[in-house]
Design goal:
Radius of gyration: 38 Å
Distance between the termini: 158 Å
CATH class of one domain: Alpha Beta
Bound molecules: iron/sulfur cluster
Largest sheet: 3 strands, antiparallel
Structural class: alpha+beta
Order of helices and strands: HEHEEEEH
Number of helices: 3
CATH architecture of one domain: 2-Layer Sandwich
Helix content: 40-55%
């Protein structure tokens, strides 16, 4: 008799738990879904999210302040200076080490390195996680124009200086000749 009771009790428990489960399912069935079809769709990302960095390269002055502030040395940069202008070789950030602490962002005097909202670090090889943040290599077009203009101005200035020096030397020569002929008259 106990076994028969147990049998019916089990049937009742099964039906009851199924009904409870279906009630929860039914409650959510007509609600708007909160899931999105990633990566085709994405949930909005808060502005202060600390994702993959981005660099406003035109503003960067290669001062190394961000690299020095990084507690785990994951920023390295290389640029050649042409007077005031920069020729960029690389600006790498190693995401194998980065802990997204944002300490590199605050000391930047030009406010040109930022934490972005991109988060997908999907690569096939770990070495690919050493990202180059440069958007272009070499010199920016306007930097090249500025450099050329500065060189031309320098050439003009040097030519004017040379002309002035030549004029001065000619005046001095004329003076010497004049005084030489005067001296001859007295003798
Ligand atoms: S977020 Fe932190 S760990 Fe990553 S590069 Fe900046 S300072 Fe270094
Ligand atoms: S601190 Fe700013 S300006 Fe200086 S190297 Fe880093 S990104 Fe460039």
């Amino acid at each position: 008799m106990v076994r028969v009771n147990r049998y019916f009790q089990d049937i009742w428990d099964t039906l009851k738990s199924t009904m409870i489960g279906m009630r929860i399912t039914g409650k959510y069935l007509l609600r708007k879904p909160i899931t999105v079809q990633y990566p085709d769709q994405r949930l909005p990302i808060p502005d202060r999210y600390r994702g993959i960095h981005y660099l406003e390269q035109e503003k960067c002055i290669d001062c190394l302040a961000c690299a020095r502030a990084c507690p785990i040395d994951c920023i390295e940069m290389d640029a050649i200076r042409h007077g005031k202008e920069l020729e960029w070789v690389s600006f790498t950030l190693d995401y194998q080490k980065c802990m997204f602490c944002e300490l590199c962002v605050y000391p930047c005097p030009k406010d040109c390195i930022h934490m972005g909202t991109e988060f997908a670090l999907v690569v096939e090889d770990r070495s690919e996680l050493n990202y180059d943040l440069l958007s272009f290599k070499g010199m920016a077009v306007d930097a090249r124009v500025r450099m050329r203009e500065a060189e031309e101005k320098k050439k003009i200035k040097e030519a004017a200086k040379a002309a002035k020096a030549a004029e001065k030397a000619a005046d001095e020569n004329d003076g010497e000749k004049g005084s030489g002929s005067d001296g001859g008259g007295e003798v």
